[in-house]
Amino acid sequence: MTNAYDDLMAFQRETGALGQIAGRLGWDQETMMPRGAAPQRAEEMAAMEHVLHARRTDPRLGDWLAAINDKTLDQVGQANLRHIRKSYLRNTAIPAKLASELARKTSMAQGIWAEARSKDDFASFAPTLEEIVSLKREEAAALSKGNLYDALLDDYEPDATGDQIAAMFNAMEPRLIALRDKVLGKPEPKSVTGTFDEAKQMKLTRQLAKTFGYDMSRGRVDKAVHPFSSGSGMDVRITTRTSEIDPFNCFYSTIHEVGHACYEQNINDDYLFTPLGSGVSMGVHESQSRIYENQIGRGRAFTSWLFGEMKEAFGDFGIANEDEFYATVNKVHKGYIRTEADEIQYNLHVLLRFGLEKDLMEGKLDVADLEEAWNTRFEQAFGYKVDKASNGVLQDVHWSVGLFGYFPTYSLGNLYAGCLNVAMRGALPDLDTDLAKGDTTAATAWLQENVQQHGGLYKPTDLIAKATGAEPSEAPLMDYLEAKFGEIYDL
Amino acid sequence: MTNAYDDLMAFQRETGALGQIAGRLGWDQETMMPRGAAPQRAEEMAAMEHVLHARRTDPRLGDWLAAINDKTLDQVGQANLRHIRKSYLRNTAIPAKLASELARKTSMAQGIWAEARSKDDFASFAPTLEEIVSLKREEAAALSKGNLYDALLDDYEPDATGDQIAAMFNAMEPRLIALRDKVLGKPEPKSVTGTFDEAKQMKLTRQLAKTFGYDMSRGRVDKAVHPFSSGSGMDVRITTRTSEIDPFNCFYSTIHEVGHACYEQNINDDYLFTPLGSGVSMGVHESQSRIYENQIGRGRAFTSWLFGEMKEAFGDFGIANEDEFYATVNKVHKGYIRTEADEIQYNLHVLLRFGLEKDLMEGKLDVADLEEAWNTRFEQAFGYKVDKASNGVLQDVHWSVGLFGYFPTYSLGNLYAGCLNVAMRGALPDLDTDLAKGDTTAATAWLQENVQQHGGLYKPTDLIAKATGAEPSEAPLMDYLEAKFGEIYDL
């Protein structure tokens, strides 16, 4: 028994190490790779994926899994087995022909989507999307005998169901709409003025990363077109970007990615290269990036410290005092684009996409009717009409690359962050005194202790329940948003 | 038939792509990797090496090779088969137990060697080196029924023999010693004075790289402790280093690495990821780096242009005119260390090591007598005594990591560069007019056409013979050195 487990884990660790290498190549591609190397890199990545796929479907996995009696293992062993069994079943369930057809179709689809978006022409993308939806439904059916959407969701938020998520999202929606409506009826906070030296932004952004506990000896910060975090364990790198006129883009991207990166850096070292050695779900991952970025980073206490740092770095930038600064970094504004949305409306964007993709997968909505459905729901949620497809149904890349089940994890992350924030503040009543001095140590230590160190040991909702003492719900997030924006906007 | 060849080559290309990934990780480790990531990276590299080793000894290779009739293939196919057959035979010839014992011993030996070097105590390293020599002799015997040194040499300089090399080196030695003796009897050229801004060095070094035809859209230049070139095809990166008081360290390291890098960049694109897709031998590789660095880069014509560029970048640096500058960049000086040696004495360093390691492998010299043999030969070649082991037998890492057969390729590269230089100048009689304007186009195009594009298509000596119209010999290099230093030192 023990022998099969040891063999399995040795094999698994090697696969984990190879997976880290693939991730590092992705980082290189976005930061360092000479542009002329793209065709060669594509072949290198394909070779790496081929090796990884062969390992993930290696028949020896099946033999080892059959030979192991989980009950003889300790908690860590059982958790490893749970992950490995599930991955193996999923990876071997999808017929090779379907997998290659999906890879081929989604690879082609990205160009077609980008072209359609540039022309604001959903009709020219619809036939392609229809094929992708059909293939994803086929994939979902191969993966599970149950609900098709749940089968796909499981890749990003293991053990969650669309209906459970819908119940929480449905409870959020009217409160979000009411709050958005009230806030947008009030005068808009001031904006920053002037230009912000990009080298100084990078200096302050590195300081912010360290302030939030990011270990620079096991990571690095570079510039890239899109901010991201990459890697696990001892080598977790982040990227950020700078804009001369919008310093918050850089600073809050960095804090967000530092949340992701600290989660990966702080997982128990013993789990390195095993299924427990990275964040347990996209939702829990997003809870860490969001609580760093919003509940801590955009809170009244921390922003008072950041205001001082920015004045020191950049001189006067048109904001008179801490209260004004707090309102500026939390500004709520009209807009069509998810990635530019504020803390309230971001969730409205996600709820909209979740509802539509769930309906598509469950056969309740046809691709032919998708644009109209999008536009109708958008007006209901945001109070005004979509002006063009690139601001509407064509704005996100996700569906063109076959990502169905990914969107809800963004708001699930916010929701988990809301739950964790209440528990953390209960445990640390004087936290704001620290944060006002730019000291996040107590907050990040609490998150490390209660969430991050565990990696993939517990199921996502069990982890949140264990950390907070209650089942996850939307109520703490909504209470927090109503209180925060009620105060800022004097509602 | 064709089918087995296609299958073999598809497999081989994937192995090639994975090999490129391993190389890229090595680059990352020396340039970008956070220092705390070292233990994790070691495991990632081990996983990658495990995958590569398994592919290189995969029994399917044997089956495909048995099924293919080489005579049915074209020239490229036959060359591929020649490389693949040879690699497969070598990789499967070494017993797994011996391979792991060698890996274990050489991994431990590096620390023991470094410790011994820091204490100038060869005796504390000798027992370890003795074990390594014994294991390498065992490896050589497994690889070939012939000469043990030749069996190891074949890894770095395929199809060469120690005796052929010895014949050429033996003809070089008295001429090198006589030249060294005469030159060191003359007054030393001036040195540069002042300090050289490191950012300006990096700017000029990137310009130099482009001047020598390095394609920046398929490469990049970074700083690292040791200059190196890494990768093949569309992604060939180099590193350099800077010293505030010695700008030539940066510039000539860069030109040297650009020689290696251009060779890799200029290989026929069709050979990507195949055995023909990288430089054919260490000696031919070194011929490219050396001819860029020395015959072109340290020539009278090119240095006159470089002198102007440096004056423009740094102002006055204590050198009055082009002739003085030419002497400065070609200064010959006493010293114990190979890596700091000039164009003449570098070869004396290599000849010394080659003779010793050949004797060790052939059982003609015991490790117990190695230090004394080194010191005796050093005094014969250089004219003075070694003062301590760190300046003598302990100075190079090579033997501690099991590299036997590597040293001669350095001087073989110089020798090939000497042959190529004569042929190139015969074909391009006005070359110096171009070089004096900083224009290397004709020279690098000639090398691309006659050497670089072919990758691994021809055997090393055939390639040089084809490019120069004569069998490789030491005479052109020695004639060149005697003429060049005779002029500079007024002999």
From TrEMBL, chains A, B:
It holds the Pfam family Peptidase_M32. CDD domains: M32_Taq. It is an enzyme of class 3 (hydrolase). PROSITE patterns: PEPTIDASE_M32. Keywords: Carboxypeptidase, Hydrolase, Metal-binding, Metalloprotease, Protease, Zinc. One of its GO terms (molecular function) is metal ion binding. This is Metal-dependent carboxypeptidase. Belongs to the peptidase M32 family. Its cofactor is Zn(2+). Its EC number is 3.4.17.19. Binds 1 zinc ion per subunit. Broad specificity carboxypetidase that releases amino acids sequentially from the C-terminus, including neutral, aromatic, polar and basic residues. The lineage of its organism: Bacteria, Pseudomonadati, Pseudomonadota, Alphaproteobacteria, Rhodobacterales.
